[in-house]
Amino acid sequence: MEILTSAEMGRTDRRAIAKGPYDGYGLMRNAGASVVDEILARFAEVHGFDILCGPGNNGGDGYVVARLLHERGLDVRVFASAPPRQGSDAALAARDCSVRPEPLSVFRATRERLVVDALFGAGLSKEIGGPEAEAIGSTQAAGCPVVAVDLPSGVSGDSGAILGAAFSATLTVTFFRAKPGHFLYPGRERCGAIVVADIGIAPTVIEGAGIKLWENGPHVWRSDFPSPSSQTHKYTRGHVAVFSGGASATGAARLSARAVARIGAGAVTMLSPSSALLVNAAHLTSIMLQRADTLADVETFVANRRPAAALLGPGFGVGETARLFALFLLGQRKGDLKGVVLDADAITSFAEEPRSLLERMVDGEMPELVLTPHAAEFERLFPDIAADRSLSKVERARAAALQASAVVLLKGADTVVAAPDGRAVINANGTPYLATAGSGDVLAGIIAGLIAQSMPVFEAAAAAAWLHAEAGRLFGPGLIAEDLPELLPEVLSGLLGAS
Fold it and tell me: What pLDDT does residue 362 have?
């Protein structure tokens, strides 16, 4: 569930060793054994095994793998980039391995043999070159299966960046908890299938360690997910205001409004300019319609109808009107209006003057803000953060959330949701079929609909990202954005029925 950085995993290993029952070499033996179990279960057809070992603990895991495979009478060769440090756990593993290592420089991969990558693992911080890069190139050219120990060598454990060159694994076996590099692109696509193995570290070892990053899923937010009771009526399920664009740009807001309704909000009102009223009226049935040409119209609506959440941006248009409407909504007292979701055009509208949004007065009595940018929109609103290439996607989202005092959902194949207090999730159930026009409008609507039902905003955004992806996976090829709201009931039935 938790995702640990390389430094956090190092501290976890040390705490686990201090608590016992395993010392460092015991954990290393357990790690190697778990890799062997996966290899024997999945790769019975290979002719032999080439184990590539680095000088550190990752290499030590590799020596254990080599010993255990050799003890089963299998054809094993070991190639070492450098000897382990004397007195280390890796040195003990090398001592106990009866297969003598050859220099990594002589390694050449063949299609019939499986390569076990135990060169570096998640702790790598410099670019790969020399014999290691040549070994990666030889392996890629041969097209042979690769099992990575902990993380494919060349992938940054903390950012998923490729450090010069990297293996493309068929299977990655990591230990205790996954690392950010298992989920963040481009590293994620180098991992193949991912197994998180139990090597004897008790889950309690990270209690109190301040871990604030998780793989997104119901375990993160299920306890806060809304479920109507027999006493529920439509307004206790929340009323959402969705703002429409002009006559030629109404579809995006209708997609959002449909998602709001499907996720369970009790009432939805489309606030539309006069020019688009007839267009919207022709397409809306259960969703209400309200004229909103001016800020005064919006003020009157909010005062009279007291929506629980508002969504502004999809198809709305970029400019001063979007800024005025957004700042008005965010300036309300947090009595009825719990949260505001700004997406698409609403985000871009602040690109020329982000300070008016990011430096607004914030206190506990104001509606909470959710921003849902894709990479280009993020760069417009947070140019300094986006320009810092040393930051991982998680770190960028966290920095933006802190700067904006908002929940930031940074979209992509590896969507990250971050809160100002540092909590973050990485969404891992996405599908490329979601890369279709209007998909993000549906996502924004799901977030607003959950906020209206009193779900906390971070949990609402995380849940929406997961549910949105599940709907996309359920449909598969041929998906268009209009399909997504209609798939939500089936996804919700699975979620709520499993509780």
Answer: 82
